[in-house]
Amino acid sequence: MKRTTIAFVSILTAAAAGNFVFWNSVHAASGLSISPLTFELTANPGDLLENTIRIYNPTDSAVAVKMEIEDFTVSGETGQVIIEPAETETYSLTRWVQVSPETFTLEPAEQKIVDFIINVPADAEPGGHYGSLLATTAGVIGENVTGAGVAQKVGSLLLLSVSGAVNENLQVKDFSAPKFLEYGPIKFAMRFENTGTVHVRPKGFITITNWRGKKVADVEFAQKNVIPGATRAVEATWNRKVLFGKYT
């Protein structure tokens, strides 16, 4: 049986900030849901952005809800979002956000449209600014409710790009592929490092050629978003099962 040699794969990437689909690690807790899960926004210094978010109570009990604004960070290379204070205010937008109403009650199967504004300072630093809009509930409301309530949080991520002298710098930190295979599918792994000042999403494909130099496939890799200072691992799969000869 012939073995297929994967010698080299070329990668073409384009750092795309548009159509940002941020990884969602702020999951909906049981008893409350929020949508949309991500806002991707652009603004000029001094702009005032107005938006709304939907909070829904799918349960059969009333719940008291409090809206909060928090920073978030990204842990590891899989895009896990952690809600916690930022180490620096460089990329934070929490002080720019105002929510109305801040507290309210949701009856069973009721939804609430919450307004929020982002007041971008006139001297805002160009680049990415980030935060999370959280809906918190301490439990259900009612005469028949007993015991301590368990606080639940659901969140939506706010990703704002402020115009100006923005540094978009995304690097391919690592690329790996199996060297010898008899059968597919073939999995490729890449790591992208964002050393710029704004969130970007690498978009591109892996070009595969056979031993004659003829292109046989363009394999798109998963589009994962990378915020400044983060490294993101992405994968691509070539689903060809029968392999003959050498591919690059």
Could you tell me the strand content as a percent range?
over 45%
Q: In DSSP terms, counting alpha (H) and pi (I) runs of 4 or more, how many helices?
A: 0
The H-and-E topology, N to C, reads as EEEEEEEEEEEEEEEEEEEE
Give the CA-CA distance, first to last residue.
19 Å
* CATH level-1 class of the largest domain: Mainly Beta
CATH topology of the largest domain: Immunoglobulin-like
Q: Structural class of the secondary structure composition?
A: mainly beta
Sequence of strands across the biggest β-sheet: 4-13-12-6-10
CATH superfamily caption of the largest domain: Immunoglobulins
Chain-averaged pLDDT: 78
Proportion of residues in helical segments: under 10%
CATH architecture grouping of the largest domain: Sandwich
Gross morphology is globular
**How many domain units?**
2
